[in-house]
Write a structure and sequence with these properties.
The complex is a heterodimer of chains A (138) and B (119). With 138 residues, chain A is mainly alpha-helical. Chain A is built from four helices and no strands. In chain A, helix 1 runs antiparallel to helix 4 (111-137). Chain B contains four helices and two strands. A two-stranded antiparallel sheet of chain B has the order 1-2. The chains are: A mainly alpha (138), B mainly alpha (119). Chains A and B meet through helix 1 and helix 4 of A and helix 1, helix 2 and helix 3 of B.
Chain lengths: 138, 119
């Protein structure tokens, strides 16, 4: 419960620092952009950790793609597929961000590349806003 | 910092304020979702409203859509209209039934191609 309740706050916070990173990159401040990108990666990493813990918890209680100890199997299947695909997108985003952050740290980056990585990251955040409302709160 | 403020006069402050609003709305959604003090219909309406408010805020401020051309903004949000169409494909089936994650709906019925009904 604590894990999944923290996840939207973590992802929203990482989205906010990503927007600041884009702003810094546009202003030509590579040092600040790198710092904000690192914070974004940290937020994404914490989010993935929360998700992994939650999956481990549900699976250890007997939930799988075809079985659900608390209700119909379809909900379990849908939950694992949706959160799994989202988690994979987060992992992909972290990989992109790590490459952009490394390039920014070396001074070899363009503001457009930071902005593009940022747009992808915000998209991942927007999807989680929907998933969290419809799968955890409804 | 001063150079950023010259380049982006409202940059960090605007992002910070947006972040605070998003945190506030997320907290409100958590309270509405986890503590069952509202009727289901009102709860669902409020959660969908908060979700839409959050995505409009993220889209317009963090993704800079509010400074884009109207055509691009309309193109970005047009899938929302399609999602409403998709919603009505399955919404009829949910009317009059319990939410699928409740225990009393645990045994679904399958109708086999032979016409045999299995529980």
């Amino acid at each position: 419960m604590a894990s999944c309740a923290a996840s939207p706050f973590v992802l929203i916070s990482s989205s906010a620092v990503m927007a600041m990173g884009v702003s810094a990159a546009r202003a030509g401040d590579a040092k600040a952009a790198t710092k904000f990108l690192a914070l974004t990666i940290l937020g994404g990493g914490i989010f993935l950790g929360c998700q992994a813990y939650e999956w481990w918890h549900f699976i250890s209680e007997g939930a799988t793609l075809t079985t659900n100890p608390w209700g119909v199997p379809q909900f379990s299947a849908s939950f694992f597929v949706i959160t799994g695909f989202h988690g994979f997108h987060v992992f992909t985003g972290l990989t992109i961000l790590a490459i952009v952050a490394l390039r920014a740290a070396m001074g070899k980056y363009s503001a457009d590349s930071v902005e593009n990585a940022g747009l992808y990251w915000h998209f991942v955040d927007v999807v989680w806003v929907f998933v969290f409302a419809f799968y955890y709160l409804m | 910092m001063a150079t950023h403020e010259l380049a982006h006069p409202h940059g960090y402050k605007q992002y910070f304020m947006t972040w605070l609003w998003l945190l506030l709305m997320t907290a409100a959604a958590l309270i509405i979702g986890y503590f069952h003090f509202l009727p289901e219909g009102i709860k669902a309406f409020l959660l969908v409203s908060i979700t839409l408010a959050k995505i409009f805020l993220i889209g317009s401020i963090f993704m800079h859509l509010k400074t884009e051309r109207v055509n691009l903004i309309m193109m970005t949000f047009s899938p929302l209209l399609l999602s409403i169409v998709l919603f009505f494909f399955t919404f009829g089936e949910t009317l009059g039934t319990n939410p699928t994650h409740q225990l009393d709906n645990v045994s679904p019925t399958f109708v086999m191609p032979t016409g045999e009904v299995k529980h």
